[in-house]
Amino acid sequence: MEIFYRLYTRGWKYAVVGVGTFVLDIGILYALIGYNFIPYWFAVAVAFLIGLSINFYICYYWVYSGTEREFFHGYFYFISLALLGAVIISGGTAFLVETFALPLLIARTIMGATTGTVGFFINTFFNFRLL
């Protein structure tokens, strides 16, 4: 039962951080495509990586406090996975927009929810190894 409690506690904290940084991510995305002439698929990746770096900082000190992994060592794993995540999110968002004519915000939200859930389990069991 202890493992489920820890998953629940870390899960809701991870979700709060994720939603907060997702809002920041979307703000950066709209600033990049609204005021610059950057293709939306590239802007999605840039906004994602900025938001995710802030997400890591908050997660390291709040969600996964007590980890024995050093900050920069954890960030290396985190950003390595994030680069793959950026490709998946950018490609998936573009796929949903181009194939199903979904609005950019809806497509990005679908991809964010999917990769965020997978990211929680990867970080919990692999990167910070706290369970």
Task: Write a brief structural summary.
The chain is mainly alpha-helical. 85% of the residues lie in helices and 0% in strands.
What does this structure look like?
The chain is mainly α. Helices cover 85% and strands 0% of the residues. It contains four helices and no strands. The protein has helices at 2-35, 40-63, 71-100, 104-127. The longest helix is centred in the first third of the chain and has 34 residues, at 2-35. The radius of gyration is 15 Å and the shape is elongated. The model has no long low-confidence stretch (mean pLDDT 90).
Strand fraction band?
Answer: under 5%
Distance between the termini: 12 Å
Principal-axes shape call: elongated
Number of E-type strands: 0
> Number of DSSP helices?
4
Biggest sheet descriptor: none
User: Uncertain regions: pLDDT < 50 for 5+ in a row?
Assistant: none
**SS-based class:** mainly alpha
Please tell me how large the radius of gyration is: 15 Å
| Fraction of helical residues | over 70%
The helix/strand series, from N terminus to C terminus, equals HHHH
Mean pLDDT: 90
Element layout with pairings:
Layout: H1 2-35, H2 40-63, H3 71-100, H4 104-127
Helix pairs in contact: 1-2, 1-4, 2-3, 3-4
Output the keywords.
131 residues, mainly alpha
